[in-house]
């Protein structure tokens, strides 16, 4: 059995786990909850195995030794590792806070991300490494960056849930903020799905997403399609704004108090921030110094990670110094994660620069 | 009068820099302008950026927006006066805000811990009350045993109706955040040192060539004080693809005419001499020199006699211990076969160097063909001799990033301090705990109160553990 078998198994497990967690929310039977956790753990274990197997396959293929063959060198591998970190983070929270409802929020993200990998057509092949990536820093820099990304995405989902749970008036700033943010995420996902359908299925099988991203919607050649895309984007935003409170009644069933959500948001950031600083920024700088002869070159990825770092530093200072709690900081946490997403995916897909490894 | 005014002005400036509002404004300005800088390509050809702007704002606005942004310095914004001023203001803001708050933290650290009254203990963050059966002396022994393994260094005072224990841990962790702020300043100092005392530049050094001056990115000529020569350059490819696996330059440093250092550098493994570091960055072929290189062959006759040869285009050579003579007719830096089976050169980069050799015996052409460097199976001749094609030397150059940065160690020092500072700031907390033990009609009441500046739940768990230890010890003693 090779790594792809276990990757498939883990994707299936996460999707089953998602269904079970949602069933658990509906019926609140303890056995169903235990089943959901078990399925998640099965998915996690098989994903772990898959990563180790792929690591080994990579080491054998490249002949560079185990430490330098960490399988985190392209978009596919990084997404897989991101999901792995996310599930690990979730399992820790489930055991620490003894609350399963949160799983119904996280397992869909994991399942969606893995399904996205499958349909988006990012290359799953083990790709040879460009000389710049041949370094012992790869392992430390990339793993720590992704652990922090996963911690930040946990803080995003709890921050967003906090906002959903504590706002109800449609003219309230926080309400407008979260409905717009959520609908933009939704719009981007839908647009990528349409891109996939038009380019991947109908045209040709081996072009990278970078070359067709948003080409069938917002960047389409015909003006009419562009206008329709923007209009439907606006409609989705308006609908989310109009009916957003429905989500509130769903999350109220989760048995999560705003205090717990606020605390998980803070704790995830408090863990993610130092790891991001050390692994992402400092180790990245040392490696850049060795490979490019510059510890900082204002490359778009570097700049965006600095912006991300600033936003989370702002969150921490707001919370510590000014004693901000609740909505204010939850908004900052949500903004921080959009910066994370841009640092991780946006820079590679939309901008150019030295850090272009993840775009294939 | 003038003195008072002066003081007021300084106070005003101080207050201006100590405000959190300024911090927020600076932070927002740095972040948003940086975003513009990531969309526009920095120090790039103007046409590229006009293209980007045309796509974003339409053909009509693109070039006018570009000229505005260009005037404002956005095309090289991270080196513009206003961006650097923002960073400097940010640094000053950071210093003043830290200085403003530091005395408070130092006071908390300096202040000796003292016993508290019952009311005040009961108002602390975490409070637990236990009542134990038995008089003070028996309970006290139990408590003492439980406290021994708690990890705190306890102070003990005798009180009217009993005892009070109090202790604190991790008070210096309150300085973690100041270390982190300090580290940012140290890093900035390192950056400034690097910019003012160092330089970065780039050289393309052809095989066999040497240089003793560097042109920096600011187009200044800087003498190295020694000379550097590229002895050889070579690319290794993945399998049969044109994707480079590793590229390597063999460099030699000469000082006063003597070779003082030799190293083969690859990406991620540079060469440093007298504080100047040479990084493997790129490579290429000198198109004008393409036919003037030197072929490096090892010719092995079928009975195993070897001979190493250095030849040029048009040269002839003898296969050892035979009458076969080879003549180099043609060279291609990147040979490929088209669909009709005809060879052609697909680029003038050295991706697949090939040499065409004709072989003669006593003046008559016997056979001829292409010998490819990356395909050893083409090295074997029909009669069992081998012509190994090792290199075509002198037509490639190595692109070296050159840097002198005396500030880099200061930057690294800052990074180390930042890591330590963050670790302290996030993972060590200042915990204070008071335990009041008092006797009341043959019963003993124990009140435990604690405060911590972060991670309250963990401290709560710790206190609960202590409580259960005291209770268990008692039950075990029965």
What is the compact description of this entry?
The complex is a heterodimer of chains A (360) and B (478). By secondary structure, chain A is mostly helical. Chain A has helices spanning 3-27, 30-62, 75-97, 103-120, 137-166, 173-201, 209-212, 223-243, 245-252, 258-292, 300-321, 327-350.
The SS-based structural class of chain B is alpha+beta
Secondary structure tally: strands of chain A: 0
Give me the number of helical elements of chain A. Answer: 12
**SSE run of chain A:** HHHHHHHHHHHH
Give the helix level of chain A as a range of percent.
over 70%
Radius of gyration of chain A (CA) equals: 21 Å
- Stretches with pLDDT under 50, minimum 5 residues of chain B: none
Strand arrangement within the widest β-sheet of chain B reads 1-22-21-3-2
Straight-line distance between termini of chain A: 26 Å
Let me know the largest β-sheet of chain B: 5 strands, antiparallel
- Which second-level CATH architecture of the largest domain in chain B applies? Sandwich
Main CATH class of the largest domain in chain B: Mainly Beta
Strand content of chain A: under 5%
Quick one: overall form of chain A? globular
- What's the total count of β strands of chain B? 22
Arithmetic mean pLDDT of chain B: 88
Stated plainly, the CATH topology of the largest domain in chain B is called Tick-borne Encephalitis virus Glycoprotein, domain 1
Q: What would you report as the Rg of chain B, rounded to the nearest angstrom?
A: 38 Å
Q: How many separate structural domains of chain B?
A: 4
